[in-house]
Amino acid sequence: MIIANWKANGDFESNKVWCSRFIARMSSIGAKSTGIAPSHLHFNHIKSYLKDHDIEIGFQDIDIEGGARTGSISPSMAIDSDCSFCLIGHSERREIFNEDNYIISKKYQMLAKSHIKPVLCIGESLTEFQAGKTEQKLQTQIHECIKGNVSSENLIIAYEPIWAIGTGNTPKPKDVNTIHEFIKDVVQSASENNLRPQVLYGGSVNKSNAADFFVEKNIDGALVGGASLDADMFSDIIEIYSRHIEK
Ligand code: 13P
User: Fold this and answer.
1) Which member of 110, 160, 189, 213 has the lowest number of beta carbons within 10 Å of its beta carbon?
2) 3-class secondary structure, 207
3) In sequence order, what DSSP letters do the residues of 2-16 get, joined into one string?
4) What is the pLDDT of residue 246?
5) Minimal CA–CA distance to 3: which of 45, 50, 36?
6) Ligand 1 contact via 161 beta carbon (within 6 Å)
7) Residues tagged active-site
């Protein structure tokens, strides 16, 4: 699957232009397993623009409950708005909003009980990468977020090394492939349903490097930030993915 994470970008006018360009490109490519996560504010607007196309629209985050929680979007609101997937544990949520694995595990638990696909983001910092602690960090994140919880059949993991996000630096695709295999093994032994999840790579994916990632056996797609804000660039990435999907 290829997911666009628009973060806090977009406005009503530019989103409309983005959607019409994207629809034009998709009519020739065909959007296989594509998702878009716009802001909560723009969710319905994007959903209605793309309603005749096979594209999943999701949330970038969710709160763990509803009620007296000013500024939050509750789980029941996500269900009510027919959200297809929801990112949880993005490193920006962890760093800027101080979310820890305990909170993320609550979000996972809540999504696992709904029809919404959880897309659990995990990844190491540059210091952890340089110290050779990537696998240890990922294992802890997976265990603390999903172990002991009800398992979701639909769980997707997004591996996003923090040092690769928005920097133009990426790990070598072969190394990512090895890490994804490790992630699949850890999830399989930590989940009660023996699940081997799809694992997406995120961090400076663009049309020039996408093929190098998608050719790898254990890289099942991408979570795309900056490059997804340009409808043509995002369409190019989907086109490249479609060519590799049968690998
Ligand atoms: P970039 O593609 O801009 O590096 O962002 C990746 C990301 O954070 C997607 O969730």
Assistant:
1) 189
2) coil
3) EEEE-TT---HHHHH
4) 56
5) 36
6) no
7) 90, 160
**233: how many CB neighbours lie within 10 A of its CB?**
17
**Ligand 1 contact via 223 beta carbon (within 6 Å):** yes
9: domain range?
Answer: 2-246
CATH number, domain of 186, equals 3.20.20.70
Q: Read off the pTM.
A: 0.96
Distance CA 214, CA 131 (A): 27
Q: At 85, phi and psi to the nearest 5?
A: -145, 165
Residue 4 φ/ψ region, left for φ over 0, alpha for ψ in the -120 to 50 degree band, beta for the rest: beta
DSSP state of 147: T
For residue 231, which phi and psi values (nearest 5 degrees)?
-60, -35
Query: CB of 160 closer than 6 A to ligand 1?
Result: yes
Residue 147: band (very low, low, confident or very high) from pLDDT cuts 50, 70, 90: confident
Determine contact, residues 93/59, Cβ cutoff 8 Å: no
**What is the Å distance from ligand 1's center to 27 Cα?**
26
CA distance 208 to 76: 40
Q: Kindly state the tokens that stand for 204.
A: 């400076």
- 165 CA closest ligand 1 atom index: 4
Domain count, the chain: 1
Distance CA 184, CA 199 (A): 7
